[in-house]
Amino acid sequence: MNFSEVFKQSNQLCKVSPDGKYLATCVQYRLVVRDVNTLQILQLYTCLDQVASMEWSSDSLFILCAMYKRGLVQVWSLEQPDWHCKIDEGSIGLVSSRWSPDGRHILNTTEFHLRVTVWSLCNKSVSYIKYPKACQKGMDFSADGRYMALAERRDCKDYISVFVCDDWHLLRHFETDTQDLAGVEWSPNGCVLAAWDSCLEYKMLLYSLDGRLLSTYSAYEWSLGIKSVAWSPSSQFLAIGSYDEKVRILNHITWKKLTEFEHHPTITNSKAVVFKEVEKRPVIPTEDLSIQQIAMESSLFDIQSKYEIPPLPVQVPVVKPDPDRANPKIGISAIAFSVDNRYLATKNDCMPQSVWVWDMQRLGPTAVLEQTAPVRFFAWDPRRPRLALCTGNTKLYLWSPAGCVSVKVPVEGGFQVQSLFWHCSGDSVVLLGKDQLCLCYMATDEEK
Amino acid sequence: MPDPGLGIREFSSVSHIDESPSRHRSPPATRASETNSKHSYSVLTAFCTEENIPQCVAYVNQEAAALGLCGVCVEARGAGPSLGAASALNLLYELLQLQRRGQRTLHDLETQQLKNNSDLEHLQHNNSRLKDQLEHTRRENSGLHEGERQLQLKIRTLQRYLKSEKEEVQKLQSIIASRATQYNHDAKRKERESAKLKERLNQLLVDKRDKRLAIEVANCVGRADGKRSLWKTSKMEARHEGEMYKALLSDYEGRHQVLLQENAELKKLLQLMKKDMVSMLSPRKTTRAHMPAEDSLEQAGSEPDDELCEGSRDPLEQMCEQAREQLANSIRLQWRRLKSHMQRLDSQVSLAASREQEEVISRREHEEAITHMKMELQQCTEFIQTQQQLLQQQLSLPCDEETAALLNDGYLLEEKERLKEEWSLFHEQKKNFEMERKNFTEAAIRLGHERKAFEEDRALWLKTQFLNMAPFVGHRRHATSESHIHSAVSGAKVPSSPALSCTSASHTGLSTPTSDPMTLPSTAELYRTLQLIPDSRCGATMTKSQLRDSCTDCSIFSVVRDGNSAS
To answer: What is the ipTM of this complex?
Structure first.
């Protein structure tokens, strides 16, 4: 495992191009494009203001930089550095900006979600979409980039509009039977659209591509409902994480619950392996402690950690949430399927230090990772069943069916890993700190 | 004189209650006159007469004394003993008093008796009434108990219900609380947003300079796929619709195919399972005659045949519901039978295991023997391998090629020399043999000649003898004897010529002597004729050396060297 040197970045804005060749980072108002392998700077662009959001176009030719405060979007071309494009939303403001799947249209959501403006780079035309809904996930593109689903709200009622991304033709517009539509997501095969209600009501609606309601699923009433949703890559399963600390799996044939995964604080299942991170703090001799020594021996404060497998039954530490606060820290907040459909990683907010990995063939837990700090982020390798996670300390943790390993990022002065994402080839991980980034190249397989 | 027994009778009739023990002392009285009235004077007179007055008096006195009354005295007056009137009257008066008292007591007792009877009746009546009452109250009591118990049960269920309701209420309250906080949060958020909106609106109204939205592009970029963009027409719309439906349909078809495949595989699996189960169960039918469920098995035997025929039918037909259900039912049936069979087997095994321990042991022994044999086999193979290795080592010991070649040559040399010697010997012997054969043939020829001569001489001598013996035998006999002799000579000739041919034959073939008697007599015969082998036919003598040579010739293939060879 090799680590690259550290580069600056701001706002956690760092993205790899879809073809995997380039790495774009934003440092204040500059946009830096590097080659992924050599990390040499290829292009350097200067934006008009501090960049709030940055995105690659799908063909890896253009980069979009949005500056929300100024209501500006600047588009840069990789092939032609002289080419420039600036979109000014005017007084209407800008809340979010994204590419369309064909890489030639930019969708800007104005302030207060008044409308979505569709700018075309091909013919400078503008289209408007009215009444978009401001919710958790109001807009989603299908995997093949042909259709876009948009959540709308008119006259206190929720609607979903399906557009054809080719020419932004409105294909379908239908009302949803929800109290407060919270999000829409296409299935990976592009034929089913999942729409769910806000947390006040547990309701999952499944629509076919042509707007027919296929099925409704509601696990229970009155208590807080859906917190997170994930489709399996094969479109066979829909995982719904809810506030009752359970993940329910629906199957794509009957749209009925296949099983539910319960995050019980006491683990007794013998098939689940519990990896507990154990820290070993070095003993610091207090007598001969001098500033020089501290400066030289940075390893003095190195905290070694490794994984231990405690015997069953194991108690997972639970943090009781504050019952008086809204959006309580309880329930499944993150679900992710592995790319081979085999594993499901979940995080229960009231067990913030643990990540659960479930085996989809056995429909049971296969591993529980217990860290020493709350898990900040985890992501699956896009090529193989390998999970990378970080807890905000200087280590990168990897889990695979073979075992678990913790790697310290060998950066001087410490590197607090706040977030991470995989390169599309699965060969490297980009680690993001507060204002730094580092690449980790996977060379060898993990050992236990 | 009246019998005093009569008086006694009177006593008994007057007071039947008062039984005096002195009655036994009284003379035996007949009871015949008991039926007489109580107050008959005739009885009185019968008791006492003029004669037995003193006895009667005595008796009366006795009785009076027994009763505690004063007695009667007898006064002797004028004409015989007579009763003192005063004492008699006293006695009578006392007796009357006694009688009255008795009557009174009787009356009293009777009244008492009546009273007691009525009291008793009254008490009995009361008793029964009270018993009834008691029974009644007991029943009431049990009824009340029952009622109380049911009420207790009801109380408990109500309490439980109350508890569950309370819990539900609590849960609902907590839910309401969380929802309320969520609503409040959302409401606050919306309020904040609306406030921002109002502010922005205000700002916009105040701020006259309206920044128009615009896009500045250096030059238009082509489409990603390089094609030109198309106009938005209804045809386009239709095409979009069509594409959408196509996508949906292809997805459905794909899923349908997958499901069909899965279905077919599962059906195949079921069929296989059914066949396996049938095959497993059917052979048992013949062997297990003592099984109680034989009938069902026999039935099963007939059923699978029908079902197997079904299986051979067109699979399309089998897609209809009935066939599917039939298959499922038959599978279930077979499975149940298999289960029962397995249970029977298990019970049998357990029985057998408990009864016969030796079987288990023998199996263990068998396994042990197998492992032992395997070990032996392994050892043997190892041994063989080591031996092979050693052998190879030995063979490949002379690693040097030259020495190896030399050694090889050395071995060969010895063999070559030996071979040469043998060849020389062989040639010698061959030559000897040839020579001897030549000698033999010459000798045979000579012998033949000599024999011929001898036979001729003999014939001549015989002739002369015969002629001498029989002078007047005709010329005819002479001719015949001559012919006879000629034939004998020719007969003698015959063996010689074959002998000649035999020798020529024996020249060519050193191999085993032929056994053709007609044309080629064997070497043994030749020897016999030449008298090499002791024979009574000829009497030719041979030299010592010739004999020895013949011996060596006989054993021509032996390797033993003879230093004293003829040549």
So the answer is: 0.80
